[in-house]
Every structure is written in structure tokens, then in C-alpha cells.
Amino acid sequence: MAVKAEVSIVLRAMNYASDELNKVKQQTQGLREVGSQLQQTGLTMMGWGAAIAAPFGLALKQFMGFEEEMRNVNAVMQGTEEDFQALSKTVNEVAMNSSFMTSEIASAAYALASAGKKRTEIEAMIGPVSNLAEAMHSELRPTAELVTDTLDQ
Q1: H/E run at residue 149
Q2: Predicted model pTM
Q3: Are 84 and 71 in contact (CB under 8 A)?
Q4: What is the mean pLDDT of residues 121-143?
Q5: Does residue 19 have a pLDDT over 80?
Q6: If we measure between CA atoms, which residue out of 124, 48, 135 comes closest to residue 100?
Q7: Each residue's pLDDT tens digit, 27-60
Q8: Contact 123, 87 (CB under 8 A)
Q9: Helix, strand or coil for residue 97?
Q10: Lowest-confidence range among 23-27, 56-60, 63-67, 138-142?
């Protein structure tokens, strides 16, 4: 009888331990599900963050390209800081009224400066050259080069 009692105690202890283990498993399963949901939420938020930040990075890169190109234009035409500021303003105004980005217009201004044009000439030419490039469905800088080559003949 003592053996039977001991077996009974052991079986009850095992059943109790098994029940407690099942409770722990259920609780950890719930935590796993919460963890998985949090992980998915984090990935979604990271994706949205990248999507939101990308245009700002692109805008900064374009601005830096514009600034550098305009500094090159000013160096080629041996302009002053006043020339740089005035021509930068003109390029921005032309960009607002055309399909070209400021960096593309600055590149065309560089082509004009490389052809020996000064600030006032570039300011007078860059808008019409932009319009011509749009009308011809061509790139802006080669159009500027074509115009200067034609005028210099």
C-alpha cells in the first residue's frame, strides 16, 4: 500500500507539473505572438520612415549638385559673389517655369559660360534655351551647346 500511495503522489505531482508547464507554454505563446506583432509593426514603421526620408535625401543631393555646378559656372566666367547670387536666382526662376531641374539648368549655364558668355548673357539666354530644349524634347545642356555653336559661327 505504501508503494501505491507513493506512486499516486508522484502521479499527482507529475500532473500538477504538467498543468503548470502547459500554463507557462500558453503564456509564452501569447508573448511570442505579441513579439511577432511588435516586430512586424517595427518593420512597417521602418519602411514608412525610409519612404518619408527618401525625398529629403534626394532634395539635399540635388541642391548640393546645383550649388556645386553654380560655383563651377561662376569660376569659369570669373564672376563675383554678386554674379553667383544673381545667376543662381535666375536659374531658380527658370527652373520654376520649366520641366528641367535646377541642376540641369545650372549645367546648361556652365555650357554657356564655357563658351565665353558672361552673367548678363547667360541670364538672357538660359530661359529661351530651356524653352528650345523643351520644344525639341531634348536635353538642356546639349541644346545650350548647340545654341552657342550656332551663334559663334
Answers
A1: helix 140-151
A2: 0.59
A3: yes
A4: 92
A5: no
A6: 135
A7: 666 667 766 776 777 667 666 655 565 565 555 5
A8: yes
A9: coil
A10: 56-60
Q: How far apart are CA 91 and CA 66, in angstroms?
A: 10
What own/partner pairs with CB < 8 Å and gap ≥ 24 does 59-67 have? Answer: 62/101, 62/102, 62/103, 63/102, 65/103, 65/106, 66/91, 66/101, 66/102, 66/103, 66/106
Radius of gyration of the chain (CA): 35
What is the DSSP track for 128-141?
HHHHHHHHHT--HH
CB atoms within 10 A of CB 26: 10
CA distance 145 to 143: 5
Cell 505579441 maps to which residue?
Answer: 34
